[in-house]
Amino acid sequence: MKIVKAIGIAALGLAVIGGLVWQFWLKGQVDYARIATAYGAKMVCSCRFVAARPMESCLTDFTTDISMVSFEETETAIRASVLGGLVSSEARNTGPGTGCTLVEK
Q1: What is the CA radius of gyration of the chain?
Q2: 7-24: per-residue pLDDT in tens?
Q3: Are 71 and 78 in contact (CB under 8 A)?
Q4: Is a pLDDT exceeding 90 seen at residue 54?
Q5: What is the pLDDT of residue 82?
Q6: How many domains does the chain have?
Q7: Burial zone of 64 (CB within 10 Å; 0-12 exposed, 13-18 middle, 19+ buried)
C-alpha cells in the first residue's frame, strides 16, 4: 500500500511540475514559434514570388536569428517550420497583384 501511495504522490508531483513548465516556459516558446514561422513564411514568399529574388538573398532580410526555422519552397508556396515540423506555417502566392497570403490550416 505504501508503494502505491508513493507512486501516486510522485505522479502527482510530476504532473504539477509538468504543468508549471508548460505554463511558464514551453507555452511561450510555442507561441513564439508560431509567430516566427508565420512571419518567415510570408516574408520569404513575398521575396521569392513577388520580388523574384533568390532564396539566399531572401534569408538575409531578417534582422533576428532564424537558423532554427527551415523553409521549403513549392511551385507557388513557402512552408516555414521549426521543431522538426511540429510548428509550421505556409504562405501561398495568390497571383499577380495580390501577393502572398498565409494559408489557414
Answers
A1: 20
A2: 888 788 887 777 766 666
A3: yes
A4: yes
A5: 92
A6: 1
A7: exposed
Element of type H or E holding 72: strand 70-73
Range of the domain at 19: 2-102
Closest CA to 92 of 35, 30, 49, 33: 49
Q: Look at residue 32 in the predicted model and tell me its pLDDT.
A: 87
Check residue 1 and give its pLDDT: 72
Cα dist. 66→15, 19, 23, 77, 97 in Å?
33, 28, 24, 19, 28
CA dist 37 and 34 (Å) reads 5
Phi, psi (rounded to 5 degrees) for 71: -115, 135
What torsion, rounded to 10 degrees, do the Cα atoms 28, 31, 36, 42 define? -160
How many residues in total does the chain contain?
Answer: 105
DSSP string, 33-55: HHHHHHHHHHHHHIIIIIS---H
What pLDDT, on the 0 to 100 scale, is given for residue 26?
Answer: 66
